[in-house]
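=== RUN LOG ===
request id: a7f3
mode: sequence -> structure
chains: 1
length: 419
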Amino acid sequence: MPVVELKIPNLGESISSVTFSKWLKPDGSMVTMDEPLCEIETEKANQELSADSVGKLTWVAKEGDDLPVGALFAKIDTDASGASNGSTGGSSTSTATAETPVAVPASSPNYATGHPSPAAAKILTEGGVDPAAVGGTGKDGRITKEDAQKAVENKTQAPVAPATPAPAAPAPAAPRTPAPAPATAFSREERRERLSRMRRTIAKRLVSAKNNTAMLTTFNEVDMSGVMELREKYQDAFVKKYGIKLGFMSIFAKACAKVLLEMPEVNAFIDGEEVIYHDYADISIAISTPNGLVVPPIRNVESLNFHEIELKLKDLSGKARDGKLSLDEMSGGTFTITNGGIFGSLMSTPIINEPQSAILGMHAIKERPVAVNGEVKIRPMMYLALSYDHRIIDGSASVTFLVKVKNLIEDPITLLLDI
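=== RESULT ===
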């Protein structure tokens, strides 16, 4: 076949359509095997699609289009590649065609040249580094995540960047992001942007949770003194042995997993007129990414050690922020924990992650005066919130669950001893 049709691949059972984000190669350009052509956005992550043959690219889809799985998004004319290799002809023909395959992949700049990957773009933006001043070491000169990290490190360690005045010309492109801020006084400018597919999916699910569940929230507070003393005493030894710090999340996850197995109704789903109970605790952890909130589960938390939970959480967080979570890593979960405290939240009412029946909200740790054995003490306190589906979880059960978690956190030795 001289013309190869490229179609949106099947990305998983739950994904029926995608949003075509942007082209990485210009229309009419020559492409090589496995060269990234474009980026698409699914409900859960962004993904690059690559060429599966060599030839001339012809665009079919437009940036911003919503395409179903199996839809045609591009064509590759393989005859253009064959002609460049030359069949029969004079020496001038073979010379001209011989230059084409060498020039395109090796020396001719294309869209990928100097263009950062999504993860690299985020790092450069946060580090205040102009992509034009960064040399790309990826395919076709694309700026990789490692290139971006080195560029930010060089900027903070030594004033190397100012020594390259040449890239200063494209610098005006950087201020376009915060353009609304430096507008004239009393500006009334507006701009309209389309919601990303992930944000649309998040919005749909949150509204569904509010409309389809009898959601209530109960609160309590927990004294974090015991956990903080435990971490301070054993942190160095923990890091030395396992190569990762002991965080609050693994302790809360372990405490929740223990109580979930004691109170199966909190760990259950409603499916029509039936209830599905679980004899395991797959705890979804809410992770904030540039594209929205994702909740990949850590499976069988009840059977994992603290360092195993921390390592798994680190791996999932890295993949989430780089947009590399697989569909399998995003699916499942019997209970969710979200920590608004990392952003400074003192108290909130988290929304249930359907089809789950409950979600625990952690918050900021603040020193407050509390009564301890008849005396006023200053203790590091955290508010806890448990949002639950009242159709399956009674009010007394929700309060009992939260009190059990509170007791385990305030006396972590009982959690370690499993008593």
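=== NOTES ===
The radius of gyration is 27 Å.
The first helix runs from residue 78 to 85.
=== END ===
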